[in-house]
Design a protein that fits this description.
- The model has no long low-confidence stretch (mean pLDDT 94).
- Strands 1-2-3-4-6-5 form a 6-stranded antiparallel beta sheet, covered by helices on one side.
- Strand 1 and strand 2 form a beta hairpin.
- The chain is built from 4 helices and 6 strands.
- It is α+β, with helices and mostly antiparallel strands.
- The chain has a single domain, classed as Aspartate Aminotransferase, domain 1 (Alpha-Beta Complex).
- It comes from Agaribacillus aureus.
Length: 125
């Protein structure tokens, strides 16, 4: 879904108060804790997290899942250990209603992505 907003606050206010908001807030808090120097903004009508090097993450609430966009996920997690049992596309990790966020290793994945980013490693699609 696309939200016609210009700020992160407007984006959050546009979301329905349901499981998608809960999962998005979980990921948002995780990104802010693992990447404290990154600015939260809006790009492509979704939440974005960037620094002077560019944008590392996008978050978006879709109809049936919450998306975390992170370039090429396989470059960050080549063995698939951190994203095991998650719905992963080339550059998108989808969190459906049935996924228990606490039972995933998404925190380690985000931490590794930020580490790669800070080292200048390439993981774009």
């Amino acid at each position: 879904m696309q939200y016609d907003v210009t700020t992160p606050t407007e984006y959050l206010e546009a979301l329905e108060d349901d499981w998608r908001l809960e999962k998005l807030q979980y990921l948002r808090k995780l990104i802010k804790s693992k990447a404290p120097g990154f600015a939260e903004g809006i790009e492509y009508k979704m939440l974005s997290y960037s620094n002077d090097q560019g944008t590392i993450f996008h978050l978006n609430a879709q109809k049936n899942y919450v998306s975390l966009y992170v370039g090429n996920a396989k470059k960050v997690d080549p063995d698939g250990d951190l994203l095991k049992d998650l719905d992963v596309g080339k550059g998108c990790i989808r969190f459906k209603k049935s996924v228990s966020m606490a039972d995933t290793s998404i925190d380690k994945f985000v931490e590794r992505a930020v580490d790669f980013w800070s080292q200048g490693k390439e993981f774009d699609c």
